[in-house]
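Team,

Forwarding the record for the chain on the shared tracking sheet. I've put the sequence and predicted structure together so nobody has to dig through attachments.
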Amino acid sequence: MREKKDKKLSFGYFTPSLFHYSLIFILLWINLGFCEQLIVAEGKVPIVRGNIRNAYEQALNKAMEDAVTKTLCLVLPKSNKLIKNAQDFIISYSILQQNYTDYCQLQIEAKIDWKKLAKALDTKGIISTGDGKRVLLFLKLPLANIDFQSQILPIWKRFFLVFGLSPIVAQIPARHRYARPPPARNASKLACEAGGSASPQAIAGRAQALAGGGEDELLDYAYKSDIPLVFAFSLEINPVPKGWQLTAKGTLRETTRQKIIGTAIGKSSVIAQETGAISALVKSGQDLARGLAPKLARHLHLWLKKQKQNIHRVTLRVSDIHAYSEVFTLLKTFREIRGMRYICLSEISAKEVAYEGHYANPIPYLINELTACGFSIDGVKKGRILLHK
């Protein structure tokens, strides 16, 4: 009885068998200028002949190298020799702790230049980067007096940042899975605070729809919003005779075909007698998330590489143009097509207008999109498409 009571008190009056789960939806929008993920790192070197200044500079360089290495370890198990001149990828840093005895030991908090780092990895052919793609992140975490979210969410944010996906986060309030959806005003407030670009009413409507739906609704929302990737992470805690077992699962899915790109599962155990059970559970959850990341990195790299190979240069020639205003109306329509990365006006004649751009999906997809927009296709030759309204 005593052991059972200790377990109950450790979780703030939540017994392991009564763990509920909250659904947390997080929108990750590409906006490289607004993302600041900080890394804590350390550097330690001996002080030789009392030269503290020289030891300080060496320890600082080692701390910067440690920051970049920790960043890359999310996607590359052996990353210590892949990137040179680590200071080139540090925007700024602050000293958290410093100690001078026989060694100079520094602990720093470094702000990583994610865009530059991702470009360097892409140039070296180590990983392919997202180049502006968006990803919808969906977390399913235990709902108890344990803060898993603040510990696990930064891991996945950094994971996508290494691939060039820089997130601004708009979060819907966590809720019990049997509870009513949160009021629209709460979702709107949080979304606006996070920097959402849509109107508060639109964000609130989408947020409430997501909160009330399941995974199918989530995928449908991502597809209609031209978000090509959905990442789902779940963490479960189950009581076992000697303590608790944690099971984590991460799944990458692309929304066009609703096809799973990659899945990884990890398990860990925490014994009941261990002191600081809550801290142990949180650390175990962290370790599981960090362990799943490299397993999913290869799948994401291959998918992004394939997507780059699918980028086509296209020319759209539209006939039967009767008004000058139609030229720019058509340009706006083409820009809103899913997968259209860039398009501009290239040629205007009496009754024909040509547009050139880059399309990130197979050409048949573009044909379907154009047909859905009300165009009739007159001819197709490689990336050259003839059409009219």
